[in-house]
Amino acid sequence: MKVGLYPALNDNNIDAGQASSQRQLSLSIAAIAEATDASIPLNLCLILDHSGSMHGSPLETVKEAAFRLIERLKPGDRLSIVAFDHRAKIIVPNQVIEDINSIKKKIDRLSADGGTAIDEGMKRGLEELKKGSKDTVSQAFILTDGENEHGSNDACLKFASQAAESNITLNTLGFGEHWNQDVLEKIADAAGGTLSFIERPDRAVEEFGRIFERIQSVALTNAYLIFDLTPKVRLAELKPIAQVAPDTIELPVQPKQGKYEVRLGDVMTDVQRVVLANLYIGQFPQGQQTIARVQVRYDDPATGQSGILSDPVAVDAQVLTAYRPSPNPEVQQHILALAKYRQTQIAEQKMQQGDRTGAATMLQTAAKTALQMGDKGAATVLQTSATQLQAGKELSEGDRKKTRIVSKTILQ
């Protein structure tokens, strides 16, 4: 298995007469399968809320979604299941999948009762995942429908950081309208996973399946993108690097031995990760100039190798005395995706400050940005939220969650 790394500038031409030029560097990263590659076992943990508020249809549909996932596991895959209310218990200890019917019966015995302590579920889930983490792709689904009323949100974020350090990816699923979006989003972002909103019980099977398809295509893990910038080239000082696909996330940058690193986490065969870096480029003489070299460091669970470095890829620009722009439409789409996310973030801040008019204006701007990139689903959600605010109405919890979700990704 190898890494495909494809750089592109939003404008490949640079004006030789300018003392400084700003460019957006897009980097698409995917795993490239080879004929001799072995199948990589999945190490999956389902961390499921069965508190009292999950009574009835919610818990029953989550059980059905869990059944469907288990049926899709392959020989050699590992599974563990943790259920939590205000305490956590192991329903299925980490094991290689053999007796599916026995596992289904254990899930089916779950009943709804008690409060909610997400951190307790995370703690037990990570303990189980670590038992089967060697030479596997380790993933967790964390599902809850409520606030972490009996637990600690700080502990949740600490466990998310520990998961990333242990090469474990956490995917969070919020069920209904009353879960804490900030906490679940931070957990998923910190541990390289995805956040999903299950608005209605009948969407549970679909959302479980969508995330499962993504994790089935994970081929490489613990990946870091490394930037080696040429002298006269620097990163922007504020929010210089973000991921824009498959989800939009601001990525923390770590300076290291004169280079810069950002953690990507999993690298997939079927889904590209796209990262956008904001660069300032100093004055260069005319001709083709290398402004950066990029590479990826990663682990390959199929071979048990870690810290593998891909070949460096040069990022070149054409410096012209008679400058003419050479825009890249694909990179422009990535720029719009990041703009949609950041505009929605500003709108949320204005809502928190009580500035309804300002929030509505920013949501309208985000809706226009979504339309520019052809994301009609997001445009509809964002404009609907803007219109409600303009009419003097409060956004419901469900509307706020949909608004955040569509800012981070393109609706399927």
TrEMBL record:
Matching Pfam families: VWA
InterPro entries (alphabetical): CLCR, VWF_A, vWFA_dom_sf
Ranges for domain VWFA: 43-215
Name by which UniProt lists this protein: VWA domain-containing protein
